[in-house]
Amino acid sequence: MTARYIVDLTDSEREQLVALTSSGSAKARRIRRGRILLLADAGVPSNQIEVATGASSSTVYRVRRRFVEGGLEHAINEGRRPGGTRKLSPTDEATLVAVACSKPPEGRARWTLRLLGDRLVALSDHDSVSIETIRRRLREADLKPWQKRMWCIAALTPGYIAQMEAVLALYAAPPDPKRPLVCFDETLKQLVDHVVAPVPAEPGKPAKIDHHYKRNGTAHLAVALAPHLAWRKVWVLEHRKYGAFAHLMRELVDVHFPDADVVQVVMDNLNVHCAGALYRTFPPEEARRILDRLEFHFTPKKASWLNMVEIEIGVLVRQCLDRRIADRGRLAREVAAWERARNEVGATIRWMFNIQMAREKFARHYPDVAANPDSPIVHAA
C-alpha cells in the first residue's frame, strides 16, 4: 500500500529533520513524523517504522503520502483540527453564566461544576451536560463562581480622603526625636493546648500533630511600632478594656519615650482608643498630664491597611504565633523573645504608599474642583 509513496529526502531536508528530532523542544507529533520520514528515507519497511516510532500503520502511510504530495513542511505539520461541535448553544452559554453569577441553591455555600450542570439541564433541552463542558465554558467566560474576594475599603468620602492624607503626611514627615511616631493596634490569640503530645520530625518523616486540641481561652496582644526607630513593643493582656489602653499609653510616654515632648500615636477607631479612657482610669490631673504628651491620629474607618503596625502584626503571627500555645505565661515568653530578636536586628518597615500615589490610585474619588468653581465667599466690590 505504501510502495508508491517513496520518501527521498534532500541533504537539507535530512539535516532539518535530524535537528528537529534531536532538539527535544518540538511537539511530540512533529518529532514522530520527522523520525518516520528519516526511517522511510533510509529504506526501513513500514512495519518496522511502526515498531520503532510507536505509530500506527495509518499514521505511517499518511505521513509518507503527505510528504510525496505536499513536501516536507506539509508532512510534519498538521492543520487546525476541526474538533467536535459545541454542545452548548450561545443561549445555553448565556444561561450558564447567568446561573453561575446568581445565588447558589439553598443549603449550598457556593456553586460547583456539578450543581451548575444539573441546573443547566433543568433549564434547557439537554439530557445531560458533562462537568468538563461546564468547566471549559466558564474558563472562556473568565468566571470562577466558587471564588470570593474580600475588600475592606469604605466609601471614599472627602472625610476619608482627609484622614488618609493626614496619616500619609505623618509618615512622610522627617523623624523628630522630640515627636516620635508610634503606630499602635491590638490583635487576638486563641490559647490552644495539645491533647496528645506531638511527634517531632525525623529524617524522612515530618512532625506529626494530632488534630484534637484543648482551648484555654484567649489572650489579647497590644503592639506598638516606632517605624523610624526600628523599635517595637508587644504586651500580652487578659482583656481589651479602657483601663488597659490607658495604662499602655502611660507606659508609652513615661517608660519608653520619657524624653519626648509629644508621642504621635497612629491607631484605629476602636471604642477604647480614646482620650476618655485615661479619664476613666486615672485622676483628672494624671490623665491630663499623660494626654498633654500624646497626639492621637486615627485612620479612617475600614482603613487598617494605613496603619504600619498591621504589617508588623502580620510578621508576628507568621514568625511566632502560628502554632499552638497553651497559656498566657508561655505566650508572653515567646512574644518577648520574638520582640527582643526583632529589635536587636533593627528590623524596619519600608512604607511605599504616599499622598501622590493615593491621588493617582483614587483619582476618581477625589472631588472635581474644576467642576465646582463657585465660592460661597462674597468679596466686597
Number of helices: 15
**Strands across the major sheet, in which order?**
3-2-1-4-5
Would you identify the CATH H-level superfamily of the largest domain?
Ribonuclease H-like superfamily/Ribonuclease H
CATH architecture of the largest domain: 2-Layer Sandwich
Helix and strand string, N-terminal first? HHHHHHHHHEEEHEHHEHHH
Q: Compute the average pLDDT.
A: 89
* CATH domain class name of the largest domain: Alpha Beta
The backbone outline, from C-alpha atoms, is elongated
Fraction of helical residues: 40-55%
The whole-angstrom Rg is 35 Å
Unreliable parts: none
Largest sheet: 5 strands, mixed
The helix-and-strand class reads: alpha/beta
Tell me the strand percentage band.
5-15%
Count the beta strands: 5
Describe, in plain words, how this protein is organized in 3D.
With 381 residues, the protein is α/β, with parallel strands linked by helices. The chain folds into three domains: 11-76; 90-140; 158-199 and 210-357, Ribonuclease H-like superfamily/Ribonuclease H (Nucleotidyltransferase, domain 5, 2-Layer Sandwich), CATH 3.30.420.10. Helices cover 44% and strands 12% of the residues. The protein is built from 15 helices and five strands. The chain has helices at 11-23, 28-41, 46-53, 57-70, 72-76, 90-100, 113-123, 131-140, 158-172, 242-256, 276-281, 284-291, 309-321, 328-345, 355-361, and strands at 181-194, 213-226, 231-237, 263-267, 294-298. The chain has a five-stranded mixed β-sheet, with helices on both faces. Strand 2 (213-226) and strand 3 (231-237) form a beta hairpin. The longest helix is centred in the last third of the chain and has 18 residues, at 328-345. The mean pLDDT is 89.
